[in-house]
Specification:
The chain is of the alpha/beta class and about 400 residues long. The chain has two domains: about 10-15 and about 265-390, Alpha-Beta Complex (Aspartate Aminotransferase, domain 1); about 30-265, Type I PLP-dependent aspartate aminotransferase-like (Major domain) (Aspartate Aminotransferase, domain 2), CATH 3.40.640.10. The protein contains 13 helices and 14 strands. The chain has helices at about 20-25, 35-55, 65-75, 90-100, 120-130, 155-160, 215-220, 230-235, 250-265, 265-290, 320-330, 355-370, 380-390; strands at about 10, 60-65, 85, 105-110, 135-140, 145, 150, 170, 190-195, 205-210, 295, 310-315, 330-335, 345-350. The strands form three sheets. It has a seven-stranded mixed sheet with strand order 2-10-9-8-5-3-4, sandwiched between helices. Strand 6 (about 145) and strand 7 form a beta hairpin. The protein starts with 8 loop residues before the first strand and ends with a helix. The protein binds pyridoxal-5'-phosphate. Pyridoxal-5'-phosphate (PLP) binds near residues 66, 67 and 172. GO terms for molecular function: alanine-glyoxylate transaminase activity; L-serine-pyruvate transaminase activity.
Length: about 400
């Protein structure tokens, strides 16, 4: 017996649910790419990305996933033999650093755990120790989608300043942009990397960069530049050059609709919605945790991210059986742990196009699975999420 016939609920931290309006906006014939409508769409997207990143700097759109965005950031500002400092807090900054290594950049890592945010005091100390000023850039993620941590980007900015270091500040916002405050200019971020398929509610295949004047200055001397990623080439006179080739026009139609939806909700309202849904999730997880089998991966409650909650499941219990139950019986896809948390964690995404009933559906399916599989858990988790939202969302 199953109760799965009905809407799919996709609860993984990317790709996320694509609104029907966005899918609909993509369902149209191809158009020409040299003049007219598409040129206007590109201009409007580059401007709205500035709004979403909170920057007056330049923005770029790449036909690539987030990994391409990483490569675009690195190759535009670095040269072979440069050193970068990678701030670890899970999987993603590490992998970004590994990409830099393959490009011929030296990597220094400020090691972290998978259970805590980056410690700004350690960043300051490490940069102070770099008396020769060899570190060219600092790489960090705002939200690590594997560990579920949120790093304090303004505090890390302050640490760089306190050390008196002039390294470029490169921030991955792939799992956080439009899900929580991000202030590229106010926090003096030099390169912001984002992608379409998480908070931005668009199919995978687009990456975005926001670029500061300081990054543009570094770009002039960078020797890792290649034509495809190159900012200067993308500033050419022809629309075609903005994409170094044929624009991914259907994804752009989708993104146009998604940004219209986001900006009509209001960016701050979207941040607030994510904060509410994240806290409702935490209320539920706290109740489940009373049974002793589940616990939050991130120890410090204030460092649990607003877009993804990572929950550890005791080794005595089968994480795959729980995920299978949610999918086979309820048509709810819950994320599993990745990297060192493979098979040991649930990742509950509340990211992008997600409202309260979608969240209740995910939490309810997990609660059913915990009961059906006899995994110990506190009672009333879904009710705790409902109660929190009822108290927080007044009539
Ligand atoms: C998803 C994700 C990436 C990778 O993006 P892809 O589009 O899969 O290449 C990088 N960083 C973070 C924080 C992510 O969540």
């Amino acid at each position: 017996m199953t109760v799965r016939t009905g809407r799919d609920i996709l609860g993984i931290p990317g790709p996320t649910t694509i609104p029907d309006e966005v899918l609909g906006a993509m369902h149209r014939p191809a158009i020409q790419i040299y003049t007219g409508e598409l040129v206007g769409i590109t201009d409007s997207l580059l401007a709205d990305l500035r709004t979403v990143m909170r920057t007056a700097g330049r923005t770029y759109i790449y036909a690539s996933n987030g990994h391409g965005g990483w490569e675009a950031a690195l190759t535009n500002v670095l040269s072979r033999g440069d050193t970068v400092l990678v701030l670890e807090s899970g999987r993603f900054a590490h992998n970004w650093g590994e990409m830099a290594r393959m490009l011929g950049v030296r990597i220094e890592t400020l090691e972290g755990t998978w259970r805590d945010p980056v410690d700004p005091a350690k960043v300051e100390a490490r940069l102070r120790a770099d008396t020769g000023r060899t570190i060219k850039a600092v790489l960090v993620v705002q939200i690590d989608t594997a560990s579920g941590v949120v790093n304090d980007i303004p505090a890390i900015r302050a640490a760089i300043d306190a050390a008196g270091h002039d390294a470029l500040f490169l921030v991955d916002t792939i799992a956080s942009l439009a899900c929580m405050p991000f202030e590229m200019d106010a926090w003096r971020v030099d390169v912001c990397v984002a992608a379409a398929q998480k908070g931005l509610m668009t199919p995978p295949g687009l990456a975005f960069l926001g670029v500061s004047d300081k990054a543009l200055a570094a770009h002039k001397a960078a020797d890792l530049r290649t034509l495809y990623w190159d900012w200067t080439a993308r500033e050419g006179a022809l629309h075609y050059q903005k994409y170094c080739g044929t624009p991914p026009e259907h994804l752009l139609f989708g993104l146009r609709k998604a940004l219209d939806m986001l900006l009509s909700e209001g960016l701050e309202n979207a941040w607030k919605r994510h904060a509410l849904l994240a806290e409702a999730t935490r209320r539920a997880v706290s109740v489940w945790a009373q049974g002793g089998a589940l616990e939050f991966n991130i120890r410090d409650a204030s460092a649990r991210s607003p877009s993804i909650t990572t929950v550890l499941i005791g080794e005595a219990y089968s994480q795959p059986a729980l995920l299978d139950y949610c999918l086979e019986k309820c048509n709810v896809t819950v994320g599993g742990g990745i990297g060192e948390l493979k098979g040991k964690a649930l990742r509950i995404a509340h990211m992008g196009y997600c409202n309260a009933p979608m969240l209740f559906g995910m939490l309810g399916a997990i609660d059913m699975g915990l009961k059906a599989l006899d995994i110990p858990h506190g009672q009333g988790a879904v009710q705790a999420a409902v109660d929190y939202l009822a108290a927080s969302v007044p009539a």
